[in-house]
Amino acid sequence: MNLKLREGEIYGFLGPNGAGKTTTIRMLLGLINPSKGETRIFGKELKNNRLEILQSVGSLVESPSYYPHLTGEENLETVRRILNIPKKNITDVLELVRLTKMADRKVGEYSLGMKQRLGIAAALLGNPKLVILDEPTNGLDPAGILEIRKLILKLPSEYGITVMISSHLLSEIEQVATQVGIIANGEMLFQDDIATLRSRADTKIVFSTSDSDKALKVFLKEGVEAIKTQHGLMIEERTDKEISELAKKLVHNEIDIFRISDEAKSLEDIFLEMTRGGETL
Known about the structure:
Elements: E1 10-14, H1 21-28, E2 40-41, E3 44-45, H2 50-54, E4 57-61, H3 72-83, H4 88-96, H5 112-124, E5 130-134, H6 142-159, E6 162-167, H7 170-174, E7 179-184, E8 187-193, H8 194-198, E9 203-209, H9 212-221, E10 227-229, E11 232-236, H10 240-252, E12 257-264, H11 267-275
Parallel strand pairs: 1-6, 1-7, 4-5, 5-6
Antiparallel strand pairs: 2-3, 7-8, 9-11, 9-12, 10-11
């Protein structure tokens, strides 16, 4: 698997639950070893350059770990001592994740969203070049999701940090990511920018008429294949002139046309089609 993360971008790592996202992330962080092959980050092999690489990588894998009896600041201090970095970094990351006013409160009293923000603060403490976030909005309410989303969007634009974020929700990734990789059953199915993924959304034309059965016979007579849906007859995309000619044929056969509309696949539809056969969402 070759994940192409461009510097200064947000990379969405997508796949159904059980597709292999967390396993891949754990291998990238050296938490588990691959069954074969090697892990390379920044062009270097992880096994022989582990310390050098991981000093430039911050991460939040699943739920953040913390000491509930310590304050937010004290939790970050334990990480700071391990990393041997300046104390000023704690002040900086607390401000970045908007926890400065809550720094003196015990983490056991934090809301789930605050705990997630503290986990991201710990991931950012060492001024990493790359931050890997595994399902950072999992379990959050809409307000918490919005907070984390705004924070993630700031990282590349304001701090030059490259972000890799995993999720099983395309709708969430779509709002933050510039690039996307889709995985199912441990294999990469798609990797490109969001615009390229959207281009796969084939547009269909839907005719809503007074008599779908009669209209279907007219279409077939004209050599146009159509599918009956709850909204009318669906055909492949046509030019404006071709659509106009079909409309004239329907009117000529005394069929009323209520509506002619475009209907495109959503990105969720494309995602589900790509990952069909993987674990359920």
